[in-house]
């Protein structure tokens, strides 16, 4: 199937999801909903349009995933999501947000991630992973640490990198401004990590170009003040993210989709705009992107996004409508009826949930019941759930 073209097909569900365990009477008419329709990109079909957004848990040592990640992500697959995205995974050691990030810069990390992908796939969800480089926002303490801010070198911190030597916060240590050789290394690191991700069993690869991390820092005019071929005009600022995307696409088999997460707006009058995102989406499709995952913000400190339902959905809608590229919506999506409307009204192809999936790993199964769709629970749970109805 050609990349980026959509089709609807009934997926073959893996694992023990028997119809007899349905929380609804499977002989009844299916409600007219869209959220639980399958979705296909290239050779990968999601059983529904609900996704678990990549959320850092800062629980790795030496970049190695461990039983925590198997349990955490496997639970969301058991809970009925169509795709489960493993957290931002660093493509090189200096690309970690914290010293406790998962990584894919070595073959040993492939072995550590295989059980994670297998747990997700065994329960019928598509195993996906986000590949990331934190850039100048790297080398920080994890959120619940006693300290905050940048980790000093004596505690295991490191020198960060960015488009320029300007730090994220004025008091942070200055990053190293990447030169041509350093940029080439970053591109190669993403491609190598993508190869390892496929070897680990992941069937969708997402490039992280949002939230002020390295690739977004190159895109945003608030951050990228270079005057060479990697900065200045839109085409120059987009060059590194597009080069990374093309390298990842080349490293990933043709039948597996590649997504890219962008900050569709910097929430700043002088920053990256929705129009920029629509323009970039067309270039990203040419570079190999099959879907644009539309988040927002993070380029500079002190900028707050509005807090309201569907706050970022218009970004996904604009990409889908104006660029003709499949999109995922995130942000302020909490209710099944709300999520179903986003897909049904063709504002996005997929909805991704973060905090709601932390609160309720079985959100998708509960949503199906709320929407009147006969979606089965896993057999070990479903027989008990069905008897309670």
Question: Can you describe this structure?
Answer:
With 389 residues, the protein is of the alpha/beta class. The chain has one domain: Aldolase class I (TIM Barrel, Alpha-Beta Barrel), CATH 3.20.20.70. The protein is 33% helix and 14% strand. It has 12 helices and 13 strands. The chain has helices at 67-78, 107-122, 180-200, 214-219, 234-237, 239-251, 274-287, 313-323, 336-344, 355-359, 363-371, 379-387; strands spanning 6-7, 39-41, 44-46, 50-52, 83-90, 126-132, 161-162, 176-177, 204-209, 258-263, 291-295, 327-329, 350-353. The strands form 3 sheets. It has an 8-stranded parallel barrel, surrounded by 7 helices. The chain has a 3-stranded antiparallel β-sheet with strand order 1-2-3, with no helix packed on it. Strands 7-8 form a two-stranded parallel ribbon. Helix 1 packs parallel to helix 2 and helix 7 (274-287) packs across helix 8. The termini are far apart.
